[in-house]
Amino acid sequence: MAVKTIAQKLEQLYKLQTIDSRLDQLRAVRGELPMEVSDLEDELIGLRTRLENFNTEVETFNTQIFANKEQMKTSTEAIRKYKAQLNEVKNNREFDALNKEIEIQDLTIQAAEKKIGDVEKSIALKQELITEVQTRLDEREKDLENKKTELKEITAETEKEEASIITEREKAKESIDEKIIKAYDRI
How many beta carbons lie within 10 A of that of residue 67, not counting itself? Predict the structure, then answer.
């Protein structure tokens, strides 16, 4: 192998730098698009998680409503039973005790009705949030599809040219001393 002059080494490095510049320009066409796609995918994951959490909360609220309705049924049944027993009382003390039990069951029903009302308001608020998040999710999915399509088109347009430049770069690297390549890559 012939010894290369400094001028020849510099010419080879210049050629490699020119090739790398063309490669950088080609990759710059994509711009921030790959990062935007990645950010949108991350945002979609977050929105889906949020939506799942809201739906879980709504299910919990519905369970609470069911439990309160069951409590109301139980209390209503107890009131019927106590009213039937009122006809069979033998003294004032039994009468007062049954009336107190009826009052307690009435209060239990009122408390359950209030809890149901509160939970229904919470469900309505969560439903609004679910609608907002779903709308945003749908918009973001459309944005993601558009960006992915755009990225595919750009990548398809530049793929062949990028491959040929990379091949040209590898050939140019072969004629340059390994120490110089390592220093060049570090820089």
Answer: 14
For the four alpha carbons of 107, 108, 114 and 117, in that order, the dihedral sign comes to negative
In this structure, what token pair is assigned to residue 103? 């009052």
- Helix or strand run (H / E) with residue 66: helix 33-86
Token couple for 22: 């063309």
Other Cβ atoms less than 10 A from the Cβ of 42: the count is: 10
Q: Cα angle vertex 34, ends 33, 36, to 5°?
A: 60
Give the DSSP per-residue string, 14-36: HHHHHHHHHHHHHHHTTTTHHHH
Task: Please write the tens of the pLDDT for every residue from 94-148.
Answer: 899 999 999 999 999 999 999 999 999 999 999 999 999 999 999 999 999 998 8
Token digits for 96? 């007062």
Sign of CA dihedral 53, 55, 57, 59: negative
Task: Look up tokens 């907002």; give the residue.
Answer: 132
CA distances for 12 relative to 20, 51, 59, 117, angstroms = 12, 58, 69, 80
CB 168 within 8 A of CB 19: yes
The span from the CA of 123 to the CA of 131, in Å, is 12
Q: Which pTM was predicted? A: 0.67
Q: Are 65 and 121 in contact (CB under 8 A)?
A: no
